[in-house]
Design a protein that fits this description.
The protein is an alpha+beta fold. Helices cover about 35% and strands about 30% of the residues. A 6-stranded mixed beta sheet has the order 1-5-6-4-3-2, with no helix packed on it. Strands 7-8 form a two-stranded antiparallel sheet. The longest helix is centred in the N-terminal third of the chain and has 22 residues, at about 1-25. The chain starts with a helix and ends with a strand.
Length: about 150
């Protein structure tokens, strides 16, 4: 019983820390800035939801996020590639555009995601094959054939 209370305390502490980190985060999402444009005018936006370059213009590009949100970004367009993910840090303006501070094409981002997923799956399979969980006692035991 004491073990389960300890697990609940640890999970509760973790949840409280996650909530505290989300509410006091120094990072600003583009969606948050778009919801309250006057409050975030001139602030640095550095978190985007899968940002992609939709169209490239002479003086910038159109940034599109997952969910269909898009916004104009003004920057130097040398080296930008259409339909690629982009790493971006930009200053938000309440009129509805961004001025980029740092822009970087995220090369091979899809491959990195798949490689991470394969690694997690591989480790999970090894863990399942090597250990077993006893629900009655709440303990993990090494399998005899591991």
């Amino acid at each position: 019983m004491l073990r389960w209370i300890l697990i609940l305390i640890i999970l509760g502490t973790l949840a409280a820390l996650c909530k505290w980190g989300a509410s006091n985060s120094p990072w600003l999402l583009l969606g948050e800035a778009m919801e309250e444009p006057v409050r975030f005018d001139g602030k640095t936006v550095n978190q985007f939801l899968y940002p992609k370059i939709e169209e490239i213009y002479r003086d910038g590009f159109l940034l599109t996020e997952r969910g269909g949100r898009s916004m104009r970004v003004f920057c130097d367009t040398t080296g930008l590639i259409q339909d690629k993910w982009v790493g971006l840090e930009a200053v938000y303006h309440k009129e509805g555009y961004l001025i980029a501070r740092h822009v970087k094409i995220a090369k091979n981002r899809g491959y990195k995601i798949y490689l991470s997923l394969l690694t997690v799956i591989f480790i999970a399979i090894l863990g399942i094959r090597s250990f077993r969980f006893d629900w009655r006692t709440g303990t993990i035991h090494l399998r005899p054939n591991a």
